[in-house]
Every structure is written in C-alpha cells, then in structure tokens.
Amino acid sequence: MIKLITTLFTGLLLAGQVYAASGNVVLAQSEANVSDQASLQRGAALFFNYCSGCHGIKYMRYARIAEDLDLSEEQLMSNLVFTGAKSGDLVKSAMPAGSAAWFGAAPPDLSLTARARGSDWIYSYLKAFYVDPSRPLGWNNTVFPAASMPNVLWQRQGIQTLAAGHGDEGDHGGHGMRLEDQFELASPGSRSAAEFDQDARDITNFLTYVGEPAALDRERYGVWVFLYLVLLTGVLYVLKHEYWRDVH
Ligand code: HEC
User: Fold this and answer.
1) Which residue has the least CA distance to atom 41 on ligand 1?
2) Which residue has the higher pLDDT, 232 or 168?
3) Atom of ligand 1 nearest to the CA of 125
4) DSSP code of residue 180
5) Which of 70, 145, 188, 233 is buried deepest, with most CB atoms within 10 A?
6) What CA–CA distance (Å, rounded) separates 59 from 154?
7) Residues 185-213: pLDDT tens digits?
8) Looking at ligand 1, which atom is closest to the CA of residue 203?
C-alpha cells in the first residue's frame, strides 16, 4: 500500500516537473506585495492612465479602490478617472463595444487575470514586448506570442528588439532564456530599466490586489487575530495556574 502511494506520489511529482519544463517561457519574479500601499497607488495611477482605455476591471468599484488604497474619492475621481464615471460605478473598459475588430482580439477584463495567470506572468508580460514588423500593430511579446495588444508603455520602457541569437526567424518562443537576456534596448524610454521594472511591478501589484481585494482585509485582520491568540494564551496560562493551585 505504502509503495503504491509512494509510486503515485512520485508519478505526480514527475508529471508536474515535465509540465513546468514544457512551457519554454521563463517568468521574472514580480515580488508583488499587496500591503505596499505606495506601490498600489502608483499602480492604480498607471492602470488608469495606460490600461483602462481598453481594459475594464468590472468587479471593482471606484469607491472601493479609493477606500482600500487610502485615497479620497475626490483624489481618485479627479486624478485617475477620465470617463465621467461616478464613484459608485464599476470600473468598466472605456472602449466602445465591438471594438475587438481594431485589435483582432477584444481586450479582456483584467479583474481576475492575476489569479488566472499569476502575478509573475503579468509582470513578465509587461516587460516582454518587442518590435516585430510582421505583426499588425508592429509589436510582439515573448511571454504571450502574437498577442494583439501593442506595447502601451513603450514611451516609458523604450523600444526593445529581440536579442541576437535569440532564435530562428519566426520563432518567438522564450527558449528558456531569462527574460532580461531576451532583448536589446534599441532606444531608451523615459524610465531607466530599474524604474521601468518598478512601473511593471506597481501595475502587477495593483492587478494582484484587484484579483483578490479581500487579501488586504485579511492582512489587517491577521494582526488582530494574532494578538488575540497571544492574549488568549496568556489568560489561559494564568487560569491553568489558578486551577492547579487547588489541586496541588
Ligand atoms: C490599445 C488597447 C490596450 C491597452 C491600452 C492595453 N491593452 Fe492589454 N490587451 C489588449 C488586447 C487587445 C489584449 C488581448 C490580446 C490577445 O488576446 O491577443 C490585451 C491583453 C492583455 C493581457 C492578457 C490577458 C489575458 O489573460 O489574456 C494583460 C495582462 C493586459 N492586456 C494588461 C494590460 C495592462 C497592464 C495595460 C496597461 C499598462 C494594458 N493591457 C493596456 C489591449 C490593450
């Protein structure tokens, strides 16, 4: 029986490894940290400036974002929201319906992308755009080959091309190369490489929060639950002494 279980378990482990190795894309670590408020605020600003024109996050309300990110509704609505939405509204894409034809694919809602794809995927995706004249919009992406989204952050990031020796013509896979080694910076953007990494991390962080807003509450309550347990332990300890004093 034990042998059977061990065999099954090893089999599962192996299958997992083969699966992990079969995706030839190596993701960079986003180090997303949803308790970093400043990062979430910067991420929200970048999202509303660069992404919300195409993408909605339709399970979030503006008011909730303001509250969670410690922004006044006034700050949020006047600095970040350009669509004339009200603070109680859900964050819908600013794009008219039927615009899928512009890109070849409709920009998906990003509410749950961080959960479906993972934070590292989003972070890497934002860093992995490169110019590719064979694509309709002139951009390609090694993390999401043939994605129909253009590199909307190019002014900040600069323009990347595939690094020499990256692969055969027409082969756009990551080849297991580290993300940083896959590209050359053909022309610099307004941000340094480290600053752009921070931009990508902030946006990823914001989308990670959007994927699970309750994570913030959990961390806040977590501290209290922990304190409660410590206190309870103290009280029980004293109580134990009290009871046993009579026994001894
Ligand atoms: C000009 C419109 C446009 C803008 C602006 C835009 N995107 Fe996109 N995005 C798209 C389209 C179209 C797709 C679908 C790509 C496909 O399926 O080929 C997409 C796909 C994505 C995906 C992949 C979703 C999935 O699970 O397949 C992510 C993540 C994403 N965008 C993030 C962003 C972020 C973050 C920004 C802002 C920095 C942004 N996008 C700005 C058009 C846009």
Assistant:
1) 51
2) 232
3) 29
4) G
5) 145
6) 28
7) 999 999 999 999 999 999 999 999 999 99
8) 35
Which bin fits 31, alpha (ψ -120 to 50), beta or left (φ > 0)? left
| pLDDT one-digit tens code per residue, 127-139 | 999 999 999 999 9
Within 10 angstroms of residue 16's Cβ, the number of other Cβ atoms is 10
Q: Which two tokens stand for residue 155?
A: 């002014």
Please give the distance, rounded to the nearest whole angstrom, from the Cα atom of residue 173 to the centre of ligand 1.
19
The Cα 105–Cα 110 span in angstroms is 14
Query: Any residues with Cβ below 6 Å from ligand 1, and which?
Result: 50-51, 53-55, 103, 105, 107-108, 110, 113, 117, 122, 125-126, 147-150, 152-153, 203
Model confidence pLDDT, tens digit, residues 218-242: 878 888 999 999 999 999 999 999 9
Helix axes 37-46, 193-211, angle to 10 degrees: 100
- CB neighbours of 151 closer than 8 A, spacing ≥ 6? 129, 139, 141, 157
The beta strands (E) that lie in the chain are given as 57-61, 90-91, 129-131, 139-141, 158-162, 183-188
Count, residues in the chain = 248
Q: Is the dihedral of CA 48, 73, 219, 108 positive or negative?
A: negative
